[in-house]
Amino acid sequence: MYRQTVAVAAWQSWARVHVVPPLARNSVKRICAVCERSLLTGERAIRFSPDGEDFVDVCPLCQELAVDYGWVKEGSPTSPTVPNQRRRKRRGIASLFDPRRQPPDDPVVAEPILRRLSVPEQQMVEAADIFNSSDYRRTVGGIAKSLGEPRASIVPLSGVSGELIVTVAWDISWYQYRVSPESAQPVRLAERGHEMGELDSGYQRWNARIEQDGRLVPEISPL
Questions:
Q1: What is the edge-to-edge ordering of all strands in the sheet holding 72-73?
Q2: Burial class of 21 by CB neighbour count within 10 A (0 to 12, 13 to 18, 19+)
Q3: Contact 132/215 with Cβ under 8 angstroms?
Q4: Which of 55, 148, 155, 207 qualifies as a cystine partner to 47, CB 3.0-4.6 A?
């Protein structure tokens, strides 16, 4: 008994000196460098280098987009590539009816119907066409393949800026894109989150839909 007591006391004395820290959980949050979505636990990321030096995580849904940007995949030859960046010039609502303009690949509204729309509806159509010509369309389409069909809205910002907010939301994540027709970068990611309750009620007027390929279509009556 005496030896056992001494042994216990000796162990306690050693433990006070050699404190073993608890195992820390890996709290590093991995985020896709393209769509800025937080990667799920166990989700495999592909490493790309935007500048040929530092590497970033890219989710499987965005790896083709990273290649289009000219990013170099980890382990691949570092031959120079040319980024595929498409920029659109300001069209304006009036230019929607200009016969000289280049039509988008897949206009969301046919021109005969477009002429009968109100100005706010024409702004929604223009915002959808600009969004659909951006690389974010493919990003949203890729996420939709994993999370299912999202809800969507197109809401003009107050004031005379002519900017609109495109909101794409699932139950576990949402993204907001600012569409600025007069800007050199007409579409950019503005906000993102995880809870639907984080969204202002004004952005939850679901007046658009996302098709399987990520195409944004405003819900406008053709009559």
A1: 56-58, 46-49, 72-73
A2: exposed
A3: yes
A4: 55
Residue 87 has pLDDT above 50, yes or no: no
pLDDT in tens, 21-76: 544 455 567 888 888 888 887 788 889 888 777 888 988 888 877 877 778 888 87
Q: Is 10 exposed, middle or buried (0-12, 13-18, 19+ CB in 10 A)?
A: exposed
Provide the 8-state DSSP code for 99: T
Amino acid (one-letter) located at 24: A
Domain boundaries, the chain: 27-84, 94-218
Which residues of the chain form beta strands (DSSP E)? 46-49, 56-58, 72-73, 151-156, 164-169, 174-179, 187-193, 208-210, 216-218
Q: Which of 133, 96, 95 is nearest to 114 (CA)?
A: 96
